[in-house]
Amino acid sequence: MQSDYARAHSAYQQGQVAASSPLRIVVLLYDGAIRFARQAQLGFVEPGVRGYALGRVHAIVSELMIALAH
Hints:
mainly alpha; 70 residues
């Protein structure tokens, strides 16, 4: 169950993305992929952390491939 802070933060982030330009969204996705890749690299000794982070990287890269395959 999410705390009030987590729900408010999530709503804020969704609002930021909804108000962003397409270029800004692509930059945010790349930033997220890099951040999660670093987490996976640092969490290499903990399979749960590594798996979660790599899953997020995969989801972001997949979304970029779909969105940018024009």
